[in-house]
Design brief:
Blueprint lengths: L14 H8 L3 H9 L6 H14 L5 H8 L4 E5 L10 H16 L3 E5 L8 H10 L5 E5 L6 H9 L3 E4 L10 E4 L1 H14 L5 E4 L6 H16 L11 E2 L6 E2 L5 H13 L6 E4 L2 H13 L10 E6 L3 H4 L5 E4 L2 H17 L8 E3 L2 E3 L6
Parallel strand pairs: 1-2, 1-3, 3-4, 4-5, 5-12, 6-9, 9-10, 10-11
Antiparallel strand pairs: 7-8, 11-13
């Protein structure tokens, strides 16, 4: 008995079949795939439904050959220790891959080769090989050589971290100072009047901003002075914060502070890893972490926060929103959209757990 008409095998249909099913031209289907902003919403919806029904999958390699686009974004990965990876940036990479994939793009991870480890050389090599359409940079420093280099090359890029005045503002970031100010308000709202701060080296702009946010809000609320050894107070604030100490030196500094006559009842740390040092120092002095002892907060809301005892209050970064915004801005640059007048600042969330009550 003869068989009836066969539906196209999923994944084997052609662009012409999609056009016929949607009642549009082949060019309209192409526009729907490559420049959906040019297609009327009702037409785009009809084409999308036909693509989904027929299981049509564009030939990415052919499209790349015609357009010169690689549909690949390069991510210059920060240097890290594979035996002790940075959990925040690992989470960001996962979010970036997802955001790029949602737009039909891949992410190519690259890093400067030792021993020179020159990031500009790694960028030159990647650009010369025509392997990527644009770059994503992270951990942006003041007067960052990578930003100046890609700007000179004319390579489309975006950065997780703000660029300086006079540089292109193709960045997405959080307001580190405002996030730390929220931490201070949280602790002050619980009745803490003596709050210490433990931060990292201030050549890292985000750490400098967190310390500044802590000091400004503590001064505004009239909190008592609590300083780690060797720290300097900003003029007129009455509050100081320790910086540039990690590991054993951080633990020793916090322990010395807790032995003083005006020991803090709370300590805000500039990262979750620094908060671990505070936990160790508090317990080494025979005190408890949390209500009734010393309240502790962190920053980044990495997975370890949930596994500490008590669980650590921390500032959560919107990593998926950051990654999606970076991909969106980079694709806008590749399309030739008008450059944004400023970077994009996204809000954080303070996740309150047992370490601060």
């Amino acid at each position: 008995m003869p068989e009836g008409p066969q539906r196209p095998r999923r994944g084997a249909s052609t662009i012409e079949e999609v056009a016929r099913a949607a009642g549009v031209s082949r060019q309209t289907v192409s526009n729907a795939l490559n420049a959906p902003h040019r297609v009327r919403p009702e037409t785009l919806e009809r084409v999308t439904a036909a693509i989904r029904e027929l299981g049509y999958q564009p030939d990415q390699s052919a499209r790349s050959l015609r357009s010169g686009a690689r549909r690949t974004l390069g991510y210059l990965a920060p240097v890290d220790d594979p035996l002790d990876p940075n959990p925040l940036m690992a989470g960001f990479l996962e979010a970036l891959v997802d955001a790029a994939g949602a737009e039909g793009r891949r992410v190519l991870l690259f890093r400067p080769a030792p021993p020179a480890a020159d990031p500009t050389a790694a960028i030159d090599e990647l650009v010369a090989a025509r392997q990527v359409d644009g770059l994503v940079l992270a951990d942006v420093l003041a007067e960052d050589a990578r930003i100046a280099h890609v700007t000179r090359l004319g390579v489309p890029y975006v950065s997780f971290g703000r660029t300086g005045p006079g540089e292109p503002q193709h960045w997405v970031d959080i307001a580190n100072d405002a996030a730390m100010a929220e931490v201070v308000r949280h602790l002050a709202g619980l009745g803490h009047r003596r709050i210490g701060y433990l931060g990292a080296a201030e050549e890292l702009p985000w750490m400098a901003a967190r310390r500044a946010g802590f000091l400004a809000e503590a001064h505004r609320l009239g909190l008592a002075a609590v300083a780690l050894p060797g720290a300097e107070a900003l003029p007129g604030t009455g509050v100081a914060a320790g910086t540039g100490v990690t590991g054993p030196s951080a633990v020793s500094a916090v322990r010395a502070l807790l032995r003083g006559p005006d020991r803090p009842t709370a300590v805000a740390a500039g990262s979750d890893l620094l908060a671990l040092d505070v936990y160790e120092a508090v317990r080494a002095e025979g005190l408890a972490v949390g209500p009734g002892g010393v309240a502790v907060t962190g920053f980044h809301d990495t997975p370890l926060c949930r596994h500490l005892h008590p669980a650590l209050t921390s500032v959560r970064l919107p990593l998926r929103a950051i990654a999606a915004a970076l991909v969106d801005r980079l694709l806008g640059r590749l399309r030739g959209d008008a450059a944004p007048a400023s970077g994009l600042e996204l809000p954080t969330e303070l996740v309150v757990r047992g370490s601060s009550g």
